[in-house]
Task: structure prediction
Amino acid sequence: MSAVLGLLKNSTKDLHDRLESVSYAQQIMSKQLSLQQYYEIIYKNYLIYKQLEPRLNKNLTKIGQLFPQRFTSRRLKDLENDLKYFKSTKKKSPSITPFKISEKDAAAWLGVLYVLEGSRLGGNVIVKALKDNPNLKDVPEFHFYQQKEINIRDRWVNFQQAASKYILSETQTANAINAANFTFQYFYKIHQSELEF
Result:
């Protein structure tokens, strides 16, 4: 692990753990997640990515020439596909706070990407637990967690290399950490909220 990634991991650990406490991590890994809880996770992630993904993709060009191709996010489409299974329970989206980070530099968006790419990597483990969960046996696909069209490990290695290349100064490191923390806080705020389902 690069020094930059080590700093990001250590600086966001508490918020990462806090997010897991409200996003059914224990139920997922114990294979006891209910169908309703799975729907809540997918729906809340849909609300998050609806706010976050368009801004991320727009701002990737600020980082470097290769970033739009390597790290464009299309997980919103995966979430929409997962929600199709729950047609009868889909409701009008509630109003949520837009995703905004004050920093406009490349390092800040790399901080956002640290959270998203780490989440994508974690999906490799999560999808196995979801597939083995008897409560979810009728769910045909887990698009958001499975990421069939992407080599997730190679993508993570590419991200680590890119972060080491583009985050060089103390200011850039601080901006990346602040943005990563903000992103974790944003996820936490949505996942801990009581939305009507």
